[in-house]
Amino acid sequence: MGYMKVLKTSSYFSRYQVKYKRRRQGKTDYRARLRLTTQDKNKYNTPKYRFTVRFSNRDITCQIQYATIAGDIVVATAYSHELKEFGLKQGLTNYAAAYCTGLLLARRVLTKFNLADTYKGLEDAEAVGEDYNVDEVDDAPRPFTALLDTGLKRTSTGSKVFAALKGALDGGLNIPHSEKRFVGYNPEAKELDAETLHKFIYGGHVADYMNEMQEEDPEKYQTHFAKYVAEDLDGDGLEDMYKSVHAAIRENPTKDSKARSKPSDAKSWKPKKLSYDQRKSNLKAKLAELQAGDSDE
Predict the structure, then answer these.
(1) Other C-beta atoms lying within 10 Å of the C-beta of residue 75
(2) Within 13 A of 68's CA, how many CA atoms are on the CB side?
């Protein structure tokens, strides 16, 4: 048998440090999380809020969170499937839906902290394509500030993460950002094309695709955009629909909580604890049964 060099000795294994569980699972970027959650010591127990955006195959989740030693605390949450209540019943994971979800969360958290009337955000529907920063109001609480947490999502220019960010900004939140990642930014000219961003926020890119497919392949259009056809919605009506959704969100962003009632027949799977007298009587019954069996034999 030839000589084999030992690459990993006992010293290696005795010093090996197991990584965090969520790092092993590939769920958390702890380098980014450390910088998003570490608070200055002179701010004591002041929460450091994060605006988290997460995407799944059928949903978009936006949350306001802050970290504690015991775990993260969620202040407010908004899901894209909630947009059905505001008039958006299809296309719940595209760029325009991400904007609506961010807008819903912003209005919801400001309403919770009684800041909705002080910081109304960008209400001009025609100026949505322009970058917006909330201004501090004199003799009033400062704007609600949070940091963007994108998780493991790739932060490339035009990503839907920044659509949710734009919605939160227009909703009145103060989130440090740059316009360089919004769709429509030209790196050569170093400026943002407001018309392109406006188009994507109101679903203009979806409308172009719908009109193109309807002309070239009407049969495929009926199946590909079946949910839009069921709602009698075509490409020309998308912008008005999204404007009405934005207005409905601003009108009432809060979620009505259902009253919880105790069920009439409460089920219990655990055995009920017996009292001393019940245990004593059960024991007497068992002894009597045993004595009766012995006498029969």
Answers:
(1) 18
(2) 10
CB proximity list for 165: less than 8 A, separation 6 or greater: 51, 53, 102, 148, 175, 177
Euclidean distance between CA atoms 70 and 285, whole angstroms = 51
- DSSP class of residue 145? B
In this prediction, residue 119 carries a pLDDT of 94
Q: Coil, strand, or helix at residue 213?
A: helix
Render pLDDT for 193-244 as a digit per residue (tens, 0 to 9): 999 999 999 999 999 999 999 999 999 999 999 999 998 888 889 999 999 9
Comparing CA positions, the residue from 106, 170, 101, 102 lying closest to residue 144 is: 106
Q: Return the amino acid letter for 49.
A: Y
Q: Are 155 and 181 in contact (CB under 8 A)?
A: yes
Cα gap 44→266, rounded to integer Å: 45
Q: Would the pTM count as exceeding 0.90?
A: no
Structure confidence by residue, pLDDT tens digits, 239-274: 999 999 999 999 999 988 888 888 778 788 888 899
Buried b (16+ CB within 10 A) or exposed e, 260-295: eeeeeeeeeeeeeeeeeeeeeeeeeeeeeeeeeeee
